Amino acid sequence: MSALPLEPVSGLEKVDEIDLRDYWDGPAAFVAGPANVALQMLGAPGVAYGVMESKVESGRVDLHPFKRARTTLTYLAVSALGTDEDRALYREAVNGAHRHIRSTEDSPVKYNAFDRDLQLWVAACLYYGFADTYERLHGPMEEELAEAIYQQLAIFGTTLQMPRDLWPATRADFKDFFQSRLANADIDDATKAYCRMLIRFEMTPRWIRPATLPLTFMNTGYTPWQLRERLDLPWSPRHQAVFNTVNRATGMVGRRVPRALRNAPFNVLLWDVRRRARTGRPLV
């Protein structure tokens, strides 16, 4: 996770008073979201084949990219920004879909969406995505604040079935765990092709793809370099310089707009899931 050369962000008073909305950047969903899904797949074959072989057709990103984006981003909004009641409702809905995601005799690897180790890896990738985008947009946080938010974001896993004690004890432990998984990533050709499709937005309708080229560029930049090389995604020092400049400019704007605007679309998605719950509509 590369920090920008800015002053550390402070603001911690009490650990239990951290409001994540003060640190939540909505635009990161678009400039780094597909890269994060690819990261989850590249670091865990069980996640990869759970996504690629999913029998829940309505949730497949290659078939229904916009719906899948909504449900994934809603999970982030609910787990990090919602209430305990929000999380309980969404857990039940997600569990209903996950019951159908398990390997068959023909699957290249064994997997089960309720596997706690796979949920740990997915939660780790979600935390990495939050920390990486935040640092690139705004610079590093003070250590105490960063550690407190890290501990709080174990909720990315505990909202489902991951036990809290599986979460690496400190950010230093997390770094060791995460880098080890990257270094030992087992990536086959099918996973590689699928992840390239995600990062290049090839799951979207052809008519919209020209408009996604800037997002493809940003998602390529947000793919960890070790995996970017293995995916054969072109990247150069000039690409990196443009990527850094765009992030700095985006962060500068984000720090000057109202929090509600900076949090979008996550606050809208949280409102929507509550509306769906009230009216009896499906949550996922």
Automatic annotation (TrEMBL):
User: Residue ranges of the ER-bound oxygenase mpaB/mpaB'/Rubber oxygenase catalytic domain?
Assistant: 22-247
Q: What name does this protein carry?
A: DUF2236 domain-containing protein
Q: Which organism is it from?
A: Nocardioides humilatus
- What InterPro entries does the record point to? MPAB/Lcp_cat_dom
The terms under GO molecular function for this entry are: oxidoreductase activity
Please name one Pfam family that this protein belongs to.
Answer: MPAB_Lcp_cat
